[in-house]
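re: the backbone from monday

yeah here it is again, tokenized this time
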């Protein structure tokens, strides 16, 4: 199974980002909850917010300290659980 990876990301207004993945899935994700976290205060700066990018290792990030798991964002866009995305992983955990 080939891993689905983010191919494009764009900052939007109102704590939203738009993300596109290698399988064609795309959409906006609401990150409003992140705005309340004092550790993420830097994201309130409009220029910093707009600096979102995809890292060399395919994370969605603003800096080395602020990044999102691309699998979690994909799951949110598709409505799938991480176990549904990676069923082998969940069965392996059951045998540990």
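seq for it, each position gets an aa:
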């Amino acid at each position: 199974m080939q891993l689905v990876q983010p191919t494009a990301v764009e900052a939007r207004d109102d704590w939203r980002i738009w993300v596109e993945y290698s399988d064609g899935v795309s959409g906006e994700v609401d990150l409003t909850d992140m705005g309340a976290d004092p550790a993420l205060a830097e994201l309130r700066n409009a220029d910093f917010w707009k600096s979102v990018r995809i890292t060399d290792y395919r994370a969605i990030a603003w800096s080395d300290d602020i990044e999102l798991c691309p699998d979690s964002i994909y799951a949110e866009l598709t409505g799938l659980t991480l176990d549904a995305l990676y069923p082998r992983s969940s069965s392996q955990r059951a045998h540990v």
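The chain has a mean pLDDT of 89. The chain has one domain: 6-94.
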